[in-house]
Design brief:
alpha/beta; Rossmann fold; 3 domains; six-stranded parallel beta sheet; 44% helix; EC 1.1.1.23; NAD; Histidinol_DH_CS
Length: 426
């Protein structure tokens, strides 16, 4: 882990690979094939990329029921508690339609309507990500989306992980597509003989999933183009290097391009954390992945003052930010850009990933400057309501017509004038 003295000359920018031309062409080929061949393409591509021969594209009721035989009670209890916490948090985000009325008869408001349908992509194959299911499905359910279709790649036997199936079943997800990759994104975006097209697609995936989401955006809504995972830990001389090292490695083990960064005002804590990272790395099961991440995208920045450190954090605009300082709450108001903020030594990032309640689908690669975590609003749309009485219309007519003519739109102005003249003649 590199230790770098933070100065004005130090660049905090991070270059992220957004896909090679070959990868982009592969994705466009898959999209064309699925749009032309439908279900047959999904079966062919699943066999090609996942080695699985699918008798049916969707998970059966029997598969869902049998999955419970492979889950112990402790795991099931943990999943249910996490679901409860996440649902409780997201219910607080729910907004209602509203209308205001004025004495002149004007009514103005906003109508909030849930999307008709949503597609949730869950990475799979050799790994299982129940937290991804919860974080994407629950806000859609709280928003009252009528149809939710989940898609996840199967193993070579054509099965999904029991924990994935049980999590989906606990949430009441009825439509689970055993297809992954760009082909799943295409099916969700445009539909096939058996897969209905959805209004919005959410959920993370590899570069091919990300490129497919980018390609179909506009025909369907998406949540975001997620980059590699990131964490920044902001510390002073009170931080425990063991905690900080463990938290940095918790992100570094995601993949080789994950970014684990520490910003500190203490040179001593920087050195001790570096040594602790090396110590913990030697015992980590995913040592090779984490080592590559730390070597290529990890850094410890030592700042002169806490103000300088906070400014560096805002420039980084991290996906995850941990504040482990003497008075961490006092710094919260200074943080302008971060996807999720974890305050204090007992709020490590995994608490938010799995259990606390806030969503872990977060903006990456600096996009926290203008983006928010996945939330209930992402599964709704808003319509403005405008109702003018005759009295209110007559009061504002001349002003509206004047602005229309200012823009050179005479027909707009005449749509006002014709009503005003009619009313004046009455």
């Amino acid at each position: 882990m590199k230790i770098i003295k933070l100065t004005n000359e130090v660049s905090l920018a991070r270059d992220i690979e957004t896909g090679t031309e070959s990868q982009k062409e592969s994705v466009h080929t898959i999209i064309r094939k699925v749009r032309e061949e439908g279900d047959r393409a999904l079966r062919d591509l699943t066999k090609q990329f996942d080695g699985a021969v699918l008798d049916r594209l969707f998970v059966s009721e029997a598969e869902l029921e049998n999955a419970y035989d492979h889950i112990d009670e402790t795991t099931l209890k943990a999943l249910r508690k996490a679901i409860e916490n996440i649902r409780t948090f997201h219910y607080k985000q729910k907004r209602e339609s509203w209308i205001t009325t004025h004495h002149d008869g004007t009514m103005l408001g906003q109508k909030i309507t849930p999307l008709d349908s949503a597609g949730v992509y869950v990475p799979g194959g050799k790994a299982a990500y129940p937290s991804t299911i919860m974080m994407n499905v629950i806000p859609a359910q709280v928003a009252e989306v009528e149809k939710i279709i989940m898609a996840s790649p199967p193993d070579q036997e054509g099965n999904l992980s029991p924990v994935v199936l049980v999590t989906a079943a606990e949430l009441g997800v009825e439509h689970i597509l055993k297809v992954g990759g760009a082909q799943a994104i295409t099916a969700l975006a445009y539909g096939t003989e058996t897969v209905p097209a959805v209004d919005k697609i959410t959920g993370p995936g590899n570069i091919f999933v990300a490129l497919a989401k980018q390609a179909v955006f506009g025909d369907v809504a998406i949540d975001m183009i997620a980059g590699p995972s990131e964490i920044v830990v902001l510390t002073d001389d009170t931080a425990n290097p063991e905690y900080v090292a463990a938290d940095l490695l918790s992100q570094a083990e995601h993949d080789e391009m994950a970014s684990a960064v520490m910003v500190t005002t203490s040179a001593e804590i920087a050195e001790r954390t570096k040594l602790e990272i090396e110590k913990q790395l030697s015992r980590l099961p995913r040592k090779e992945i984490a080592s590559a991440s730390i070597a290529d995208y990890g850094a410890i920045y030592v700042a002169e003052t806490m103000q300088d450190a906070v400014e560096a954090v805002n420039k980084l605009a991290p996906e995850h930010l941990e504040i482990i300082t003497k008075n961490p709450h006092s710094l919260l108001g200074s943080i302008r850009h971060a996807g999720a903020i974890f305050i204090g030594p007992y709020s490590p990032e995994p608490i938010g990933d799995y259990f606390a309640g806030p969503n872990h689908v977060l903006p990456t690669n600096g996009t926290a400057r203008f983006s928010s975590p996945l939330n209930v609003d992402d599964f709704t749309k808003k319509s403005s309501i405008i109702s003018y009485s005759k009295e209110a219309f007559m009061r504002d007519a001349n002003d509206v017509a004047a602005i229309a003519r200012l823009e050179g739109l005479e027909a707009h102005a005449r749509a006002i004038d014709i009503r005003k003249k009619k009313s004046d003649d009455e």
